[in-house]
Amino acid sequence: MNAIYAKPLNILLGVTGGIAAYKTAELVRLLIKQGHRVQVVMTEAATHFITPTTLQALSGQPVFIDSWDQRIANGMPHIELSRQADAILVAPASADFMAKLAHGFANDLLSTLCLARECPLLVAPAMNRQMWENAATQRNVQQLRQDGVTVLGPDSGEQACGEVGQGRMLEPDHLLEALTRFFTPKLLAGKNILITAGATMEMLDPVRGITNLSSGKMGFALAQAATRMGATVTLVYGHHQVTPPEVSQACFAGSAGEMYQTVMQHIANQDVFIAVAAVADYRPQQISEQKLKKSESTLTLALIKNKDILADIASLPNPPYCVGFAAESEQILEHARQKRLAKRIPMIVANHANSAMGSDHNTVTIIDDQAETPLQADEKINIAFEILCHLHARLDPH
């Protein structure tokens, strides 16, 4: 279970009539995989696009459609089902259904549930681009937002009708991320955080370079978790093996020099700097303009030292709160302690390079002036959340 949730959520998933309903099956699967309980309620129109049997099989719960369903003992499914939910998510939400919500109609089970709810309501619009752009739809969307309903999307792209434009329902993984972000405590709201991630590449010639095994996963997890926690995140990333998360601003920097320059360009007004990127300590003294040919049994390279990004940021006249990472292969804690003192930073996170690089899991120890705090092995996204909670406690001790 994702540590960002204190407990599994009870999600009431509403499905309305639209071709995007086929994506709902994958959304249910992802929600169940994350440990949530999913109760599906469909409109009659939705059953023309996907069957209740499919969603029942995926959710493991009976699917409800009729306001007069006798499976609810007291004959009030709109009350019973809504009271059991931590949130109602309608995906897809058709133009017709959003019009119902905006005007308070309650002429089927799902609309009645939404009207009788005591929990948050989120909707994921899905419709033809002209329907989305229609003035009536835009008025309804504005009304829903004013009423406190969270509108997720829509996305832009190719539609089932063959047209291209805004109106596509967000993909299931994006909806899951939006739901996760909605329920994550906003402990870092108002904070500006710059994070570096990934590996740098120091080129030898046009086709070869010196790099390392960093995948970018830990830095990306921290950027994703910080965004979920309400921070404004600037991500400066190098070479990586996974897709970067959505953040406020993202910049690619392939070499140590490029990363140094990019960080320096964005460091002003940052509250926190987290240096996770595996930046090369050295670079070739000369870069060949042509591919180096095999000619001798040995090849000697002259390397020169790169600038230390973290140390230089920490030595600024008014530096942000600096957090370093120490990926070591031996004497991990001892080397991390020395690194923290040498760079004059308040916090460092120590881990074992051999097991952490490229893995989805990590085991770390947070070292600062007050304590050394080991964290149990876990997925990197959960480790990231724990690190940021620790950081929050240091930034705001009250």
Features:
398 residues; Rossmann fold; 5-stranded parallel β-sheet; elongated
Strand order of the largest sheet: 12-11-8-13-16-17-19-20
CATH class of the largest domain: Alpha Beta
Mean pLDDT reading: 90
Structural class estimated from helices and strands: alpha/beta
Q: CATH topology of the largest domain, which one?
A: Rossmann fold
> Roughly how much helix do the residues carry, as a percent range?
25-40%
Q: What form results from the Cα inertia axes?
A: elongated
Main pleated sheet: 8 strands, mixed
InterPro entries: CoaB-like_sf (IPR035929), CoaBC (IPR005252), DNA/pantothenate-metab_flavo_C (IPR007085), Flavin_trans-like (IPR036551), Flavoprotein (IPR003382)
Active site: 161 (proton donor)
Catalytic activity: N-[(R)-4-phosphopantothenoyl]-L-cysteine + H(+) = (R)-4'-phosphopantetheine + CO2; (R)-4'-phosphopantothenate + L-cysteine + CTP = N-[(R)-4-phosphopantothenoyl]-L-cysteine + CMP + diphosphate + H(+)
Family: In the N-terminal section; belongs to the HFCD (homo-oligomeric flavin containing Cys decarboxylase) superfamily. In the C-terminal section; belongs to the PPC synthetase family.
